[in-house]
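Reading is simple: the token line describes the chain's fold. The lines below illustrate.

. . .
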Amino acid sequence: MKDMIELNDANFEHEVIASQSPVLVDFWAEWCGPCRAITPIVEEIAGQYAGRLKVGKVNVDDSAGTATRFGIRSIPSLLFFKDGKVVDTIIGAVPKGEILRKLDKVLT
């Protein structure tokens, strides 16, 4: 998890909304099987795009305020932020290719 940021209610505004780079945020929970299934993919993307993309995780149990703010009802939910705004979303565990397709749009 060296290329990823642990996000929470306290640091979300600074790390994501005020970020100069695009940010991929993974909303997850310890008990969520599909969340654990996509964690290696998200970590891989964090390493692959280091320097061009910030990647962080929000534990919805620990940061309910942030999860509520963005209407997270199902996890895993991946939100793509650019200029402080959500520009795309993926809900559920999906193949890496689908995440990369959306990411390419965000990064262009």
Q: What stands out?
A: The CA atoms of residues 6 and 53 lie 15 Å apart. The first helix runs from residue 12 to 17.
